[in-house]
Design brief:
This protein is mainly beta and about 130 residues long. Helix content is about 5%, strand content about 50%.
Amino acid sequence: QVQLVESGGGLVQGGGSLRLSCAASGFTFSSYAMGWFRQAPGREREFVGTITPGGAVTYYADAVKGRFTISRDNAKNTVYLQMNSLNPEDTAVYYCAANGRYGDVTYYQRSNTYDYWGQGTQVTVSS
């Protein structure tokens, strides 16, 4: 049974940091690219970033580039999203997702290319 379980969300003041984790099970984690998406109230789900299966390459949305960092530990079947310099516009439910195919950044930006999804974790940034 495939599971992706996010954790680490919460309430943080603007300018602060949070680290999200996503623990995976039920599939060969090291063979999948892992993405992070977010969805704010009343808005469509949007791409945050992706890390390739081996961890050598990362892609980020322009809105988070330079502030967010994705990493993974294939020995622990876990992917991380380090979020720094948070602002209220980052408030959203954050989801991790697994993608079993290779592609370029435009491919990984599309949520419909991902095979598995977590249930999400709420991040709220106060002003």
